[in-house]
Amino acid sequence: MQKRHNNIPKFLSEKRSIWLFLLSVLFFAILFILFYKPAGFMRTSELLSPWNEYIYTAIQVFSGFIILLVSRISLAHFLQRHETDFSGIALWIALEMIVITLVLSVIASLLNADEGLDFVELLWRVAVNIIKILFIPYVITVLIFMLRDRRHQIDTLSKRIENMSGGNDMSNDNMNFYDRGGKLVFSTRRSNVLYIEAADNYSNIHYINEGKEETFILHNSMKHLDISDNYPNLLRCHKSYMVNIDNVKLLRKEKDGLLLELAQGARSIPVSRTYNEKVVHFFASVPES
Predict the structure, then answer these.
(1) Mean pLDDT of 190-210
(2) Are residues 14 and 153 in the same domain?
(3) Which of 6-10, 101-105, 157-161, 234-238 has the lowest mean pLDDT?
(4) Alpha-carbon dihedral of residues 238, 14, 144, 4, nearest 10 degrees?
(5) Mean pLDDT (the chain, rounded)
(6) Could you report the per-residue pLDDT of 204-247, keeping only the tens digit for each?
(7) 281: domain range?
(8) E strands within the chain?
(9) In this structure, are residues 265 and 208 in contact, taking their beta carbons and an 8 Å threshold?
(10) Does the structure show a pLDDT above 50 at 169?
(11) Which of 114, 136, 161 is the last residue of a domain?
């Protein structure tokens, strides 16, 4: 289990954002290398011909990009199945850089086998060059995507505030759920929804119907519900749970962690360590009615 922090940027797990990140890294890396002359910046050999410089550069860039591609896709799958914090992400990226450096050093050693270069010196030179090449695209892309995530959070919070002060707008009284194809398949009064429970690529909607708790199986993932702007009243509190904030009676601390007690329904919803800070901050910032 992770120690803290639920604010892992979504671009680390969203397919579209992963590809944008990889393409931007590739673009900046190629631009950076070409700006400093092909192989002149990455060079480990001083005896390469001009044509071999381009081949050498292409091999290095392509190899590094493939490793980065495999690493980020693996990271996305890992984040979908496990909880972690920023230290875990930092460790993953550090290992990613180490692997890239080792692989490119081996490639450089093979390409320059006739020159008898010391592998330790070669490893150090490649490591420095990799850091220099990737530093700018890493910083720029991370800042861009984090800014986008912050903008998304602000928009979601604004919609939540509007819904909480929505007056007599009847559209705010219903909560509509859509399947993966965008088709409306379930709708009920917002006050009837208790919590959502993850079930692989499906979601179980627990709600009140004529005084009894019932369940509707939604053909949509909790991940999609969590990033959607259609559900400002649903608060993610666990890898497997989202709660309707209108039905939360109290938040209490137990030996095993935090629990959300619902005003309706027979069970309490656990809060995982990943979402502790988010849940506490949310309820601490909700104005008293």
Answers:
(1) 90
(2) yes
(3) 6-10
(4) 20
(5) 76
(6) 999 998 888 899 999 998 888 888 878 888 999 998 999 998 88
(7) 170-285
(8) 174-178, 184-189, 193-199, 202-209, 212-218, 234-238, 241-244, 248-254, 257-262, 268-271
(9) yes
(10) no
(11) 161
In whole angstroms, give the CA distance from residue 99 to residue 102: 5
Cβ–Cβ under 8 Å, residues 108 and 44: yes
Question: What's the pLDDT at 195?
Answer: 93
**Sign of CA pseudo-dihedral 41, 45, 49, 55:** negative
CA distance 154 to 2: 26
Which domain CATH number covers 279? Answer: 2.40.50.1020
Query: If residue 110 lies in a helix (H) or strand (E), which one and from where to where?
Result: helix 86-111
Residues in the chain: 289
DSSP state of 288: P
- Tokens at 59, concatenated: 């091999």
Query: From start to end of 61-192, where are the E strands?
Result: 174-178, 184-189
Per the structure, the count of domains in the chain is 2
User: Are residue 41 and residue 144 in the same domain, yes or no?
Assistant: yes
Question: Tokens 């910032």, residue?
Answer: 285
Strand ordering across the sheet containing 234-238 = 212-218, 202-209, 193-199, 241-244, 234-238
156 lies in the same domain as 30: yes
Residue 53: the pLDDT is 64
What pLDDT is stored for residue 106 in this prediction? 83
- The 10s digit of each residue's pLDDT in 132-158 is 777 776 777 677 777 776 776 676 666
**How distant is the alpha carbon of residue 232 from its chain centre?**
19
Side-chain-side CA neighbours of residue 246 (13 Å): 20
